[in-house]
Fold each of these.
Amino acid sequence: MQKPLIFITNDDGIRSKGLRALVDTAKAIGRVLVVAPEAEHSGQSHAITTQIPLRLRKMQDYDSSDDVTAYVCNGTPVDCVKLGLTHLLSDKPDVVLSGINHGSNSSISVIYSGTIAAAQEAALYGIPSMGLSLLDYAPTANFSAVQAIGSDLIKKVLTLGLSKGICLNVNFPIMSLSEIRGVKYCRQTNGTWNENYDLRLDPYDGEYFWLSGSLVNNEPDATDTDEWALANGYVAVVPIQPDMTAYAELERLKAKWQ
Amino acid sequence: MQKPLIFITNDDGIRSKGLRALVDTAKAIGRVLVVAPEAEHSGQSHAITTQIPLRLRKMQDYDSSDDVTAYVCNGTPVDCVKLGLTHLLSDKPDVVLSGINHGSNSSISVIYSGTIAAAQEAALYGIPSMGLSLLDYAPTANFSAVQAIGSDLIKKVLTLGLSKGICLNVNFPIMSLSEIRGVKYCRQTNGTWNENYDLRLDPYDGEYFWLSGSLVNNEPDATDTDEWALANGYVAVVPIQPDMTAYAELERLKAKWQ
């Protein structure tokens, strides 16, 4: 049997340690095609590039294994997936992975995440996919527990499959493999970013702003959420889907607004 | 009673005709605060700016009415909403509007849309919101039917309200007011972008790509969808929500993957 084909991208860019960790994990399982952004694209969500031309460049020195091919793209994570699947491949890969992200994509952060948008884009092409994130923003983060548990999850996706259009949003607590209590399948926490703009003056007395903030968990007592799982030592796996319809509200509008 | 405060943004940028049309409609209903991107940001989805500082500049000449104040921002539509709500206002506006977009945001296009992401961002702040789009990409598009029906919808949101966290994705067919058959409350169509990258050579023989494609409706016979409504002469109103959890798949994973 031919080895499975694993397509990998991320939003931290081709040089990130998390991408390297995911490629090292994946090449022990199958053939790997990497198409990653040239630059950092955190917080780029489902953005696509339409105003400047896209470029794709093969990396000759990314990995010494014959099972790994790598390209770099000047676009967003979603551009990498679209261009890679459309232009570089004639057959669909067996799975698309995005990450390993440096930092959390749990709760409402999922909506801003370039990592998860890339995985979700692949699911729109009918390919099972998974975004992996570690709750550590440091460029030097230790990904060994993510690699061990992530490897099991990749194999599960390859053997058991996912329903069409579904992608997994997987977040890992900052813990060693022996400290992690297991994997929880859970729902997205209702959370809100409490925003705070840092107002500064440039050398010419012009005002500028930096976005900062922190996530507020609006349901801290709920035990079936990704935030609860992460706070209690579990890997949080949330299956996500692209239908944004608010069905309960739709029924309310049909009844009250006609 | 004080006039309602209407916050307006878009993704086509401060100079677009659609924004002007929405401001003209809104100022007949209440006080208006515009915070719009400097440049075009179509397809920017929920992208936020974290790598360059944000700037906010008051426009002295956007509108002659005392009820209209306008700012321009160098960021994305979502940045405009976050920065405007956090920095410019001490109280929440009564409604946030985004648009009028030049082009459709129905079906799966909603996931790429900067227009709808901006409206959804406001809903995350607990403010009722609505994104308005006309299925005409032309810069010179005629927005008069959108203005007439949109005005009614804005008043409905102000008087009847929306459930917390909900935003309305409203798309208008290219028709005159007398041709439009009414407003349909519907769900997001299951659709897929059929992508096609246009490969070209620059003057130095370097390859580059332009994204193009067309939307495929995967359920053309379903009559409760936004695509059906638009194709049959209706304004399509889809309530959307930020929880991306795939609940049916979650139950399947809990049963089969443990």
Amino acid sequence: MTDITASIIVIGDEILSGRTKDKNIGYIAELLTKIGVNVMEVRVVPDKEEKIINTLNQLRKEYTYVLTTGGIGPTHDALTADCVAKAFNVEISENNEAIKMLLERIPLKDLNDSRRRMARIPHGAKLIENSVSKAPGFQIGNVFVMAGVPTVMQAMLDVIIKRMETGQKLFSCNILTDIKEGDIADILRSIQGRTETVSIGSYPYYNDNGYGANIVCRGKNIDELKSIASIIKNDLSEIGNVEIGEIL
Amino acid sequence: MTDITASIIVIGDEILSGRTKDKNIGYIAELLTKIGVNVMEVRVVPDKEEKIINTLNQLRKEYTYVLTTGGIGPTHDALTADCVAKAFNVEISENNEAIKMLLERIPLKDLNDSRRRMARIPHGAKLIENSVSKAPGFQIGNVFVMAGVPTVMQAMLDVIIKRMETGQKLFSCNILTDIKEGDIADILRSIQGRTETVSIGSYPYYNDNGYGANIVCRGKNIDELKSIASIIKNDLSEIGNVEIGEIL
């Protein structure tokens, strides 16, 4: 079974200026990981045509899927649909089905030229409906184009994941310890040396209750994962408190 | 005055799996924007040597500065320092000054091989001290290498910004409205057509109190920014409530 991979392109000056804090990357990454689609790269790019087109064309060749967020509203700074059309070298025009979706929410008298822009869809694309704002995203080839507003993006993502080929789920197991990273690193390196199918990550934490390391094991085979987790627990229990979480 | 640009590379499987939600991108972006350094691109990449090296070598040529977060701890999955050395084609070895910094926090008897790894620094790099954990980051050429733990990263960033050449600050002004984006898009497009020095962005919001659009104007000249903001306020006041925020 081949790996199913994905990359995310977050489009928007407001993220790069820090004015808006992105909430979409973590949400998409978590959901795709759950269904066995491995997010391999994320890029945040400005509202600049050339950069958006180049990034799209590079990533859509490299990964199974590309998901974009942002830049599909009615205003002049929403460039994504046109950039996608240019990247795929196809025409873009008003899509009747998209107009119908807009009319479910917007009275005909309010459907001005700016709002009609939200129905401009690259030729050959399939719409992605959304229950929140009605204005659709779209899919063309392996690229899924979504809104930037988190609630709208999340509604679109629910539609998208049903269209995706999903891979073998990567299971993970957290092991929480109150041991300093520097005291477990040798042990973890040795255990990692014994397995090629389970990857072991270590993430230090500092909080009001003290510090320690959270170890995360990931793998496609649950039995191997359990075995490595129990070796880690066994080896670390001599130096501190170790708690194995459930396998997710 | 030339533009000072930056890109951020977030290194870590845990961000791409969604297990850890990144808190560094927004923090760095906001702080750099304040001092006139324009963040032009962000990439999140996995703990994979080839990907880290290629990304570093591409971005350090493209932007004034590159800042990385993550992958400089004592464990086997911390690859950043070695990748940076390879990207710059320099040797890497234990740095005496870095060992001294570690000893400010770590008793000599606890300074095992894993912890000593945190003192491995590419040749030619300058250390970045941090008051939180003492383990240093480093700067080589135009690349700044920081920890991934937010509190540690923030301490390092305070040191880094003093070493950066800063650009002309980009001022911004928020204009909050209770008008739907689709009703202001034509007006904003027309106003944007009249200025090349102020960029106008529109960000729809939906919350419990209703919906509307938050307009953000950005520019280097405060007078031009004020002038555009007041034109927007004037033109939109006919259709809804409009409130100009302070210029930041």
Amino acid sequence: MLPERQLIDRIRRIAGRVKNRDVIRGIGDDCAILQLPAGQQLLVTTDLCVEDVHFCSEWDPAQSVGHRCLARGLSDIAAMGGEPVACFLSLGIPPKLPQKWVDEFLRGLLHLARQFHLPLAGGDTSSSDKIIADILLLGRIPSGKALLRSGARPGDRIYVTGELGGAAAVLKRLFAGEEIRPNRTNRHFYPVPRVEPARWLRKRGLASATIDISDGLSVDLAHICQESRVSALIEAAAIPAARAATLDLALHGGEDYELLFTADRGVKLPNKIAGVPIAQIGRILPKSSHRSQIQIQDRAGQIKVLNPAGWQHFAKT
Amino acid sequence: MLPERQLIDRIRRIAGRVKNRDVIRGIGDDCAILQLPAGQQLLVTTDLCVEDVHFCSEWDPAQSVGHRCLARGLSDIAAMGGEPVACFLSLGIPPKLPQKWVDEFLRGLLHLARQFHLPLAGGDTSSSDKIIADILLLGRIPSGKALLRSGARPGDRIYVTGELGGAAAVLKRLFAGEEIRPNRTNRHFYPVPRVEPARWLRKRGLASATIDISDGLSVDLAHICQESRVSALIEAAAIPAARAATLDLALHGGEDYELLFTADRGVKLPNKIAGVPIAQIGRILPKSSHRSQIQIQDRAGQIKVLNPAGWQHFAKT
């Protein structure tokens, strides 16, 4: 490990290579300075990643950890239909951690950042027993145009992008002790935040509510139902489960970072948006005190209550 | 400890009591949404606090820890002459931590936040072995008016607000095993970020460079010298050491969160700014490759090199 000052200087050198015109001043003063164009609102999200909670150094390569930390934040910006503007990193590292781990972590993070023209504009460092990385993402959106969780209305259709359960299926195999090659195409190691499809929806005003699937479909759909004061009915047969993922993993597995959104029943959507397949999985119903928030119709046509059961940090420990 | 969902709901309830008109949407969606008035730039700073690095649960009450986490961020906004707009909290907590600790931590943080009309607009939570709190502070400043570290020029006078070394003197006694009452007036437990004095300076355009003293006078003055490409000469007799603080603690002790700033030699400053005493402690000299960045003149008139020796996390461990 480099001493803190040298570590910051090193990050500053690496981070300086990507520019964004909204960032007036990045690393090097007490605060970063940004200026958004007129008519734009600021989006802010923070995502805390802790070793042995969000990743496992034993099987997750440092590059993948860096990538996923940033992907979580990008996925939140995507869920609002926003454009990423700058990221900030608060990094806690054990003093005995090899510098190579830190360098690889930064490489993974900055590789993804470059794809979105996203500068690392600041942050903080500290020593810490376990590795901790808190990512702050700033984005922008034309004023009043953010896609919210709260806009779903009875009758709306429910959609998801891509495939579900893929990341959880890999995680399950890792937990079982299997060794898995951390390929760039593997959604557990290198998830792709759906910034483009969300932007496409926002520009056309087609989505009534959106959220990213970080905790699992059942949990994140429950968030939409709660914030929109509605309930939902989904169809098991329509869920786009990833190859190797069971229906259970597709319903409750987290960290796929796909988009979940609703749109008026009259809206015609293409099969793919920005190259990503779209599946209609159900519809929004009125809120009812007699009924649970989410129900699922199985392949035999039977309707059952679906309890949210995704990844919950405290419940697991 | 409450389960994560309940913890977030609880924070959301408590946090909702303070409003800021720039915050369009706080906790409850994938991102918070802010909108700054026209002609304002955004200031961003993050400060990572880790148990047993930045605070010690044995002697620091949870309220003080919450206060200090936020004070660090507010002090960074102050150092740029900015107005605080919103804070975000990423909180990692051991599952077995009593809920009372978390409640008291939030009480300390939100009590200070209220004084600056600062809403808690979002964040993240996770389980973690040690308590970790990453604070993100957003502020605003009229475009182009931020006070920077890089504006000091040879001939400028160097000033500090308040007294130095007070927080370090208390910390030294705590390390020695002494029990100290965590009074609200104690600068170790409840430091006061200098938002008002900095704003006063910024409005009048009187400071050429500013920084907050978080790491210690010697380290933070070295930052100004580095970013401004100058050197500095300070006088031992002029350093406003706190009662009970030695010159050494006043020079190198961190966490006083006073302001260090420079101003043109022609500028006349009052003895107090916004109720806080101001002391002139030296002057800026041209950069010289033969000479160290900072020199100090002792009470006998002798000039020596002053090596930066403040709080350095990694160097200590």
